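Ticket #4471: structure export looks truncated?
Reporter: QA, pipeline team
Priority: medium

Steps to reproduce: submit the single chain below to the structure queue and open the exported record.
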Amino acid sequence: MSAGSALRTFFGLIWRFLEGVRKVLHLAFLLVIFGFVLAALHTSIPIVPRSAALVIAPEGQLVEQISGDAVRRAFGEASGGPAPETLLRDVTDAIAAAKTDARIKLIVLNLDELEPSGLSKLQEVGAALRDFRASGKRVIAAGDAFSQTQYYLAAQAGEVYLDPMGEVSVTGFSYYRMYFKDAIEKLSVDLNVFRAGTFKSYTDQFSRNDMAPSEREETSVWLESLWNAYTQDVARARSLPPGVLKDYITEQPGALQSVGGDMAKMALQRGLVTALKSRRQVADDLKGLVGEDEDSHTFNAIKMNQYLAAVRSKTVLKSKSDAKVGIVVASGEIFDGHQLPGAIGGESTSNLLREARYDNTVKAVVLRVDSPGGSEFASEKILREVQALRKAGKPVVVSMSTYAASGGYYIAAAANQIFASPTTITGSIGVFSYIPTFQRTLEKLGIKVDGIGTTPLAGDLRIDRALGPATKQLLQASVDHAYAQFVHRVADGRKKSYEDIDKIAQGRVWAGADAQRIGLVDHLGGLKDATDAAAKLAELGAAYDVEYIEPELSLREELLMQIRSQAVRVGAWVGLIPQRSAVERILDPLFDQARAITQLKDPRGLYSYCWCREPSEYGERVLSR
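Actual output as written to the record:
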């Protein structure tokens, strides 16, 4: 055998070996995927122990609608993103079902992974927990530490246990944002702003270096309203004297020094927690109440998602009612066209309302709004569908969640009735438009723009040329007309005069309790109250069915979602799914603002938008509009 042929034989053997390894790995990969598919298709219904604690452990923010495309989100979660979310209705449904379930002896709250969420959503969960406790069953909260959001829910429990090394971090609500006037001037950018509404302050960040007096005035009102609601709810739940929580904050430096810097001891002394116990101590105590799991050697428990799968499976085979209330969720910013869940689309949300209109079994509709607004053109499309539902004889009741402001209020204006939480952020009835031009920036670089147009308006909307007087006049007139239309829509829906609405509009933001006082909202209450009202308007009686009207997942999407759940379990088990850092959470508002600005694409450049973000821990997350 020649040296050449021996070399070819040697490398041939190596190639066949590598090819064999490739085939084995490929087969192994296919078997793993096949295993996921089988697991997805043969997911068994969880068994609820005869005696157990229901563990409520929400992850991420509480939301009205899980955001994003089902397939992309499925694989995104398996690879460590996006941020987790928990459906508000999943939490409240689980608590309501457990109330009458003899197998569930108590609820345990594990709030470690709960991120800042709207106060109105927390209040709905709090109400469900109080209703559960009214049945005589216990609610226990245990944590290593409690953030402001987490503590609100923990306080609703009858017993709150804090680790001896932990703390209760409550600091109050605040409103801060950045102003860019000087930066814009240094960059030689001309930002042309057109707005209608004395209090419409979204564009102030471009034209000012500080908060306008009008914005400071309105903000102090609704911000204090939300903070009062938080402190009163906590004090009532913990049976504390009024003012204890505020004193806990203002007196904290001296009080902490008196206990040698022990945050946990200070929280105990002020009555914020029941006792200082580690999770292990709490778990050992629970064994005596619900029994011990022989495999895990902890107390008998069932997680919320498993419990929901078990209790909801019983209703799957029930015959569909021919008289029900349909719920359409409008959650997120309002954009044109078709949007993924977590955003409101002029077309996609309108289609859901249209589906309810043509479904003969749907006798009334609840529009659940959780939106700061957005495109006025898209808002108008959705409003028309609400009007069409009413014209078809189907009552529409709006239920406002954390916020229903600007465009979020626009789409609610034509409803038969409007319900809001006392802490809902609403109103902000105003319109703005802004166009940046960069001709001065280009001139600094030695770039000139010149040419000719057939009319004074031709080429006047280029970002490399200054806006002409005629264009500015047209844009302001367009904004003024859009504002007048907005006020007329609200006046018609609220059965008030234009002048009455104009006085309380002007872009001003109101808390839900104040909005009810001035007539922008009919009643204070949650989703259940709104649903009952819709059923009453449709004369359905006390016993009625509820159906969420949502885009249906295809078989492919359903399968991939199930595969994702299996993949996430495996990824978490082997430590492949990373956790979001505190820095990422702090930067969320900045990323949210940049993302939303780039998505504002109204055909006419007109926006009814309130940059409302619920108060939260990280410096109390910036609320701006």
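Status: closed, not a bug. The export was complete when the record was re-opened. Leaving a note from the reviewer for reference: The chain has a mean pLDDT of 83.
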